[in-house]
Every structure is written in C-alpha cells, then in structure tokens.
Amino acid sequence: MRGRPDDGTPNPDAELREELQGMEARVRKMRNTRNSFSEQARTVADKRNAVQGQYKEHKEKLDLVVTEIKAIRSEIKMFKEKRNALQQQARELINQAKGRRDEKGSKKSATAEYAKLKQEVQHLEKTFETSSVGQKKEKEMIKKIKEMKIRIDELAPEVTQFEIINVDLSDLDTAIKTLHSEADAAHKDMLEAVGRADAISKEVDEAFAHRDFLKAEGDRFHNEFLELRKKSDDMHNKITELMVDVNKVRDKLNMARDERKSWMTDHNASVKAEMKTGAESEEVADELVSKLLNSGGITFGGIGQGDSEGKARRKSKSGKKKSMRKIDMNANRRR
Predict the structure, then answer these.
(1) DSSP code for 100
(2) Cβ contact 289:298 at 8 Å
(3) Mapping DSSP to helix (H, G, I), strand (E, B) and coil, where does residue 104 land?
(4) Distance CA 56, CA 214 (A)
C-alpha cells in the first residue's frame, strides 16, 4: 500500500515528479511571456492600422492639393512660354524692320524670312498686274514668284508653330506693338498664377510634412509590431522544444505507474488465489482432500474417525435423556 506523506516512505517517482513540476512551471511562465508579447503586438498593430488609416485619408486630401498646385504650375508654364514666344516674335520683326540679321547666325529667322518673302511676293504680283514688262522680264518675275511661294510653303509649318497670334506683317510697327501688348498680358497672367501658387505653398508644405510624419509613425509601429511578433514566435518555438522534454518525463511517469499497477495487480491476484477455500476453487478443494486422505482424517464413506466418535457420544447422551424423561413421567403418575 502507498504510504502517507508523514510515514517516511519515499515516493519512487519523487525525482521525476519534481523535475516535471519544474518544467511545467517554466512552460507556464514562458506561455505567459509569449501571450504578453502577442498582446503587445496586437496593441501596436491597432495603433499602426489607425495611423495608416489617417495616412491614407490625409494622402487623398494631399493629392487634391497637389493636383491644384500642378494645375497652377501648368498655367505658369503656359503663360511663360506664351510670353517668351511673343517676345521672340516681336524681336524677329524688329530685326526685320531694322534690316538686321538674327543674333544666332547670318541667316534670317524663319518668321523674318517668311514675312519678307510674303511682302516681296505681294510686291511682285502687284507690279506684274499693274506694270507693262517685256516677255523675258515677265518670265523672270513668274519664276521668282513661284520660287518664293515654294519657300513660303516650306517655312509655313515652322512659322505657324511659333506664331502665337496673327498679325499683319505688312505693317511691322503695328505688329510689333501688338506682340508686345500680348506678351505683357501673358506676363501678368503668369504673375497672377505665381501669386496663387505662393498662397497655397505653405498649405502644401504643411500637408507634405504631416504626410511624412504619419508615414514615419506608421513605419515605426510596424517595425515594433514585427519585433514583438518575432519575440512571440521565438518564445513559442522554445515552448514547443521544452514540451518535447515535458512529454518524455510524463511518459516515464506513466510507464512507472503502469509498471507498479501491473505488479500490484499480479501480487493481489496471487494473494487472493492463496486465500481461496475449497468451495471457491476446485484446485484448493482437491489439495485439501488429498491432505486429509493422507493423514487418515477422512474415509471414502465420507465420515471420518472423529465423526464416528462424535456420533456415538451423541447417541449415549440421547439415551440418558430418554431414561430421565421416563422416570419423571412415572413419578408424576404416582403423585
């Protein structure tokens, strides 16, 4: 039987149980640590998601502001290009009016050459229609007009590209004034657009700064989440490794318990078998009969020597009792 704790009987599994309890305590502590890391990771993930939600919402607003500032900058660029083109066209007409060549080379600019050819063609056609010339001179004029028109057609695409407004090239002074006026208007439009861009530039800068802040916060929380997640996973792996050893100790305890249980079962069965009577077991009955026969305490008739003597004594006592009863009955009759 298993002894009580105070009877001084040592527990054969005490060492294994102590080892198992220590390991299970470590597992519980490690699980608490792992769960703490997981809970912290969830908290940080919630913060990260909240910041990323703010970042997404702010970015949508920022995109609208950026779209607006890009549109204004496109206006500025357009007005600037228009102003520069008008000023360039005016300079070319001024150079033509003064008979000067373009500063970039000896060849006249396309606009100046185009304007000069147009004027010469108009002059030659007017002379051809109003003047009387010889046949040879007429052929020369027709050939020259034809060559000039071919050159005008060649220059037309280039002139059309840079000619912002149509001006009367026959009156260069008026054309130059018109170009200057249009260039000034384009310059004013550009300055107005620059003013609008400057007015919202502070808002744009603040929006970009807040966007960068939200992104940095989101990244910080995400990195913290990854770190906590890694700690939780590492702790879980350690728990898994330790549980292998825990299960080994548990298996040892179970095997020892099963072995003792098996031994106790066999022992109890043996003791029970030894304590059986003849009525409970044929083997025991046969063994007892064999012993009695060998000792002479029993005969084949089923009555032993002791049984015969006992029967004789019982008969003798029975006769005496009958005699006593007879005597008593006669005495009563005489009375």
Answers:
(1) P
(2) yes
(3) coil
(4) 9
Domain definitions of the chain by residue range: 35-230, 282-329
The whole-angstrom separation of Cα 26 and Cα 235 is 12
Question: Do residues 86 and 164 lie in contact, with contact meaning Cβ atoms separated by under 8 Å?
Answer: yes
Rounded distance between C-alpha atoms, residue 289 and residue 271, angstroms: 21
- Cα(first)–Cα(last) distance of the chain, in Å? 75
Report how far residue 308's alpha carbon sits from residue 314's, in angstroms, rounded to the nearest whole number: 10
Query: At 151, phi and psi to the nearest 5?
Result: -65, -35
What tokens does 166 get?
């149509």
Position 189: which residue type? D
The pTM of this model reads 0.46
Give the integer Cα–Cα distance in Å for 331 and 335. 7
| Residue pLDDT tens, the chain, 335 long | 444 444 555 566 777 788 878 888 888 998 999 999 999 999 999 999 999 999 999 988 888 888 888 898 899 998 898 888 888 878 877 776 666 444 444 445 666 677 778 878 888 888 777 777 777 787 888 888 888 888 888 877 766 655 555 555 556 678 788 888 888 998 999 999 999 988 888 888 888 999 999 999 999 999 999 999 999 999 999 888 888 888 888 888 888 777 777 777 766 767 666 665 545 556 656 666 676 677 665 555 555 555 555 555 555 545 544 554 444 444 444 44
Q: Please, which residues have CB within 8 angstroms of residue 200's CB and are 6 or more apart in sequence?
A: 65, 68, 69, 72
* Host H or E run for residue 54: helix 14-98
Helix or strand run (H / E) with residue 332: helix 305-334
- What are the CA-CA distances from residue 114 to residues 98, 119, 262, 288, 303 (Å)? 16, 9, 120, 150, 163
Say if residues 52 and 219 touch (Cβ distance below 8 Å): no
Q: Is the dihedral of CA 237, 241, 243, 244 positive or negative?
A: positive
Measure CA 79 to chain center. 49
